[in-house]
Amino acid sequence: MLLPADRRRYWLALSLVLLAAFALRLGALLLEWDVHHADEVFQVLEPAHRLVFGTGIVAWEWEYGVRSWILPGLFAGIMALARPLGDDPESYLFAIRVACILVSLAAPAAAFVLGHRRFGLTGAVLAAALPAIWVDMVYFSSHTLSEPFGAHVWLAGVALAGTLRPRPWQAAIAGALVLLALLIRLQLAPVVLLALLWFAWARPAIRAPLLLGAGAMLLLGGVVDTVTWGLPWQPIWRTLELHLVYRVHESFSIDEAWWYGARLVYYLGAGAVVLGALALFGVREAWLIALAALVVLLAHSAIAHKEYRFIYPAIAFASVVAGLGLARVAAAQASPWLPAGAVAGVALVSLATAVSPGYERYVRQNVEPVLPVARAVRALPELCGVGFRTFWSHAGGHALIHRPVPFYDASTPASWARYHAGFNAVVYDADDKPAPELGFAEVACFRALCVGARPGGCAPVPAWRNDWRPQPLRGLPP
Length: 478
Fold this sequence. Notes:
By secondary structure, the protein is mainly alpha-helical. It folds into two domains: 4-364, no CATH class; 370-453. The chain is 62% helix and 5% strand. It has helices spanning 4-31, 39-53, 60-63, 70-82, 89-104, 106-133, 135-139, 146-161, 168-184, 189-202, 207-229, 234-245, 259-268, 270-282, 287-301, 312-331, 338-354, 357-364, 370-378, 397-401, 413-419; strands at residues 386-388, 407-409, 425-429, 441-446, 449-453. The chain has a five-stranded mixed β-sheet, sandwiched between helices. Helix 13 (259-268) packs across helix 14. The longest helix has 28 residues, at 4-31. The mean pLDDT is 91.
């Protein structure tokens, strides 16, 4: 039990750590505000925009009912609240990204809580410092992907359940948060079950409220699915059906089991060694979180289709364990300068990783500059239709362009000839510029993507897009 003075120091230290983590994440967002993967637009922001404003591209996952409306629904609420601020989508986009940053603070908060129990206030600050400043934790914190959001919610629940003497209402919230991670990201199911079973067995005093909170959240998810899809928990069993029966994931890529290990070494370089070594020192302090990181890594290594963002939860969990390892190493030393030096060293390793060629090319610059393209398109004064002569995921969608105009897939000569009269703006690859006789003049280029415009209005051509369903689903009606 903390004395009043100790309690004040505890909350002051935690507040300062979280404030520093928030400032670092916000600075990174303002410095490099773009889209990491198309899924954060078309699986989250686009359905949210369709819910609030009535327009949005419908990706194949939404045609087949394999996505929950919980995460888009949360962001739709932010869009609705930001609507009175004006017609500029930057307002609600910024508000949503800041909300994601706030949720991401669960990682350093969890490390702080666990570190304080074992190493005191100095150890708590050290433990929280690593997930507060680690490159992946900072970069992915503001992105509207289910992987980071689900991982952060899981960590919040585990930290709350792992406090010394959680009250019944705290245990209920912890169970609800852990289960919410499953509803947001189905692939987290193994670690969700792991956490719930462990706490229910190891802490019988909180078993009833913990499971009650988890059950209430599961029921709420079923209600949301029934209201939106017509059947409870449809995204869960529908996702399993499409991937286990139709093997949809194999239509994207088939990668070797060691793919993630190789990418971790290539993208993080020496940072992978530092993170792994510190995590080994911290396993004894948070073996549940360490085991969860290993489970996520092994489970995703067994799946054919692999992307670096898929194992973000493993990296987030490992960063918390590594933070505890850092605190443990510092506690074994007598030097008063070690804590500050350790934080500075981790910060330098994180910064060096962020600017390394592997991380910059394959993580930070993973996709095309969608946001600048969207800004250039919506700034056109007489915009009445947008054509995409490039891959559809570079579109930015209605959530980013935010103009009540039709979109057209003009990526093939046949579709261009059929629909070009319906748009007076076009997004195209820099090496595939429309011929001068088509009347489109270049407005701006951003790396490999360009925006062109022509004078005049648009004909009332019905909007159309290509069938971008995975090949195994071409014969299965949505």
